[in-house]
Amino acid sequence: MSASGGTKAIVAALGANLAIAVSKFVAFAFSGSSSMLAEGVHSLADSGNQALLLVGGKKAQREATPQHPFGYGRERYIYAFLVSIILFSVGGMFALYEGYQKILHPHELDNWYWPVGVLVFAIIAESLSFRTAIKESNALRGNKSWKDFIRHAKAPELPVVLLEDLGALVGLVLALGGVGLALLTGDGVWDGIGTLLIGILLILIAVVLALETKSLLLGEAAGAEEVAKIEKALVDGDTVTGIIHMRTLHLGPEELLVAAKVAVQHDDTAAEVATAINAAEARVRESVPIARVIYLEPDIYNEVEAAKGPDTEATPGGPVQTADH
């Protein structure tokens, strides 16, 4: 669902940004507005970003190979990270440079109706694209706040499109404000200030996207709700009596790896344990369909060892860091 919803939002944003980019460059050619040039580059960068998200989604669908036995699901995270870099370098840094140059060398706007008309058109088009992204996100967001949805979503496409569309709308308002003040005062410096603000906005959004996609690239565990379902499904109270420890890892937005050491009775036969393990795997897949790769290790539960607490040294990457450290 997240993949199809994300694709629909990406296509809507791509179509809107291509049309808007062309109109902004035309307006820049007739008016000389630096805000329009920065916004044109912004829309062009956004169009490239959405194309990258589509490519990443396509590549992520490839079948697993002996060299990549867990598949290519993380391709979507890689391309989302590239989007943040492009938004920062192409969109944000160019806008800062153009705004700085316009403040140093201001000039009056020519044919003011071009940038104003294009900005109004762009605000309408971006609003429609933003509406599509919100609608598709609401289908997955549930009761989460928008902040939590963007921070914890495992599928990167919708958060990326949401932030891009939001940034585009705010940027258009800033551009309209800069152009409007330049026209009212006759001072082209305002156009440059508007452009600088657009650059700062794009860099802030790029930093947020980079931080979130970096976390996904490093590997995130399943959400609390999925973890609770997996734990409940693993234990049958008969042969599998408890969970000694468990690790989960997203191999992609819709693919989860589950590895657990489970407690079994000391007098169970090998056949009974094997049957219980297979049944536990089936219960987990039924409860959490994205749990596609499951490794379960049976062990004899030891109350004395359990009382010592979890073995922090067994955590991949080193000891667990507590809040006191």
List its salient traits.
325 residues, three-stranded mixed β-sheet, elongated, mainly alpha, disordered N terminus, single chain
Description:
- This protein is mainly α.
- 66% of the residues lie in helices and 10% in strands.
- Helix 2 packs parallel to helix 7.
- The chain starts with a helix and ends in an 18-residue tail after the last helix.
Summarize the structure.
This protein has 325 residues and is mainly alpha-helical. It is built from ten helices and three strands.
- Could you state the order of secondary-structure elements as H and E? HHHHHHHHEEHEH
Tell me the Rg in angstroms.
26 Å
Give the uncertain stretches in residue-range form.
1-5, 320-325
Give the CA-based shape.
elongated
Strand order of the largest sheet: 1-2-3
How does the SSE layout of this entry go?
Layout: H1 2-31, H2 34-59, H3 75-104, H4 113-141, H5 146-152, H6 157-185, H7 189-218, H8 224-234, E1 240-252, E2 255-264, H9 270-287, E3 291-300, H10 303-307
Parallel strand pairs: 2-3
Antiparallel strand pairs: 1-2
Helix pairs in contact: 1-2, 1-4, 1-6, 2-3, 2-6, 2-7, 3-7, 4-6, 6-7, 8-9
